[in-house]
Each structure stands twice: as structure tokens, then as C-alpha cells.
Design goal:
alpha+beta, Ubiquitin-like (UB roll), DNA polymerase, domain 1, 3 domains, five-stranded mixed beta sheet, 8 helices, 5 strands, 38% helix, 13% strand, elongated
């Protein structure tokens, strides 16, 4: 811990650390959290690359760390914290977003891979005053308890319904030559990548079925 000098001013270490941080910021344009994370961990400074991406209908020109996931970029750089970090290994689905209309785990893809893409997060689907039909259905059917997985569940459901409308089969599809009925078994299979630790699955299925009819 830095101790003040005897005259009440900052210590020599504090002055040097502040000067170094200011120099790094001026040279790289990094946000303070990224600088602190790198220096505290003794890691080399991040390499930044420009990325132009449309997020929730808004064009964003970013300088992103080449190692940063889309999830961390959405949460830490853009402040879109509706997309949740759960397992951070692509196993729980809490970070599901839509990329060019297709659902994807934001923790498993790097932000630099999405130059020119369109990304939709839960914040881009609807607002409290104008809910997306799927959001309204989740509320009506009580498709959440703690709510942590809900943004990913809703984004995944919207993407899944688009896949169904496009005629994509699933592992539960018995007849690949006929139109696929969105049965409970189909919904369960297609949503199997999204976990609900509160086990609100029956209500989630009911919400998705109604949201798909809206």
C-alpha cells in the first residue's frame, strides 16, 4: 500500500505509478480497467485493432483487444450488462446473443471476428415500455426465477424460432421431409444449450410456445 510522505504529499511510488499509467493511456488509448488488469497481472499490454460493428442498431467504431471475447467487449467496453457471464466456457448459454440474426455464445467468439457484423443483445430486443413478444411471454408464463439466465434464454429463443421458421431440423425431428411442428420435445432439444439453474423449464417452454405464435 502506498504511504504518504512525511509532509502529507503522495509517496514517490504513487507518483511514478500515476505517471506510468498516464503514459500508457496516452500511448494506447486504453480504458483504465484494461490497463490495471494487464499491469496488475504482469501481462504485456493488449494489442488493439479497429472493429466496426452494429450493436442493437447502432454503428460502433471500437478499438478492441485482440484477445477480448465478444462477451467482455459488450459488458466492459459498451456497458451492455444484460448479456450475462455464467460459465464463460460455452456451456450454460447465459451469454447468448444474436449475430446477424443467428444465436451464438458471446463468450466463445472474439470481438475482432465481428467486424461488419450486426449484434443484438437483450437490450436491443425490446424496452420496458415496448416489450418484445418473447419478453412479454416470459413474464406472462413466469419463465424465470432469479433471472440470471433469462437474457440468454430469450435471445436464444428468438434465434431458435427463426431457425424453425427456416425449416432447420433438430435432433428431435423425426421426419426430415415434413414441416417441423414446434412441440415441447422440439423446444426442449433446441433450447438444450441454455441452462436454468432455478429449473423453470416447463414455464420457459410455455413462454417460447406462446412467443412463437406472436
Amino acid at each position: 500500500m502506498n504511504q504518504p510522505c512525511h509532509d502529507g504529499g503522495p509517496s514517490r511510488r504513487a507518483v511514478l505509478q500515476s505517471s506510468a499509467a498516464i503514459g500508457v493511456l496516452a500511448a494506447t488509448g486504453l480504458a483504465p480497467p484494461a490497463v490495471r488488469a494487464a499491469t496488475d497481472a504482469g501481462l504485456p499490454m493488449p494489442v488493439l485493432t479497429p472493429v466496426s460493428v452494429t450493436v442493437n442498431g447502432r454503428a460502433r467504431a471500437l478499438q478492441v483487444d485482440t484477445r477480448a471475447t465478444l462477451l467482455d467487449t459488450l459488458r466492459e467496453t459498451l456497458g451492455l450488462t444484460g448479456t450475462k457471464k455464467g460459465c464463460d466456457h460455452g456451456q450454460c448459454g447465459a451469454c447468448t446473443v444474436l449475430i446477424n440474426g443467428l444465436r451464438a455464445n458471446a463468450c466463445l467468439t472474439l470481438a475482432v471476428m465481428h467486424d461488419g457484423d450486426e449484434v443484438t443483445t437483450i437490450e436491443g430486443l425490446g424496452t420496458p415500455e415496448d416489450l418484445h413478444p418473447m419478453q412479454a411471454a416470459f413474464i406472462k408464463h413466469d419463465g424465470f426465477q432469479c433471472g440470471y439466465c433469462t437474457p440468454g434464454q430469450i435471445c436464444s429463443a428468438v434465434g431458435m424460432l427463426a431457425e424453425h421458421r427456416a425449416g432447420w431440423p433438430s435432433a428431435a425431428t423425426a421426419d426430415l421431409t415434413a414441416a417441423v411442428e414446434l412441440s415441447g420435445a422440439e423446444i426442449q432439444e433446441r433450447m438444450s444449450g441454455n441452462l436454468c439453474r432455478c429449473s423453470a423449464y416447463p414455464n420457459i417452454v410455455s413462454a417460447i410456445r406462446e412467443g412463437g405464435e406472436a
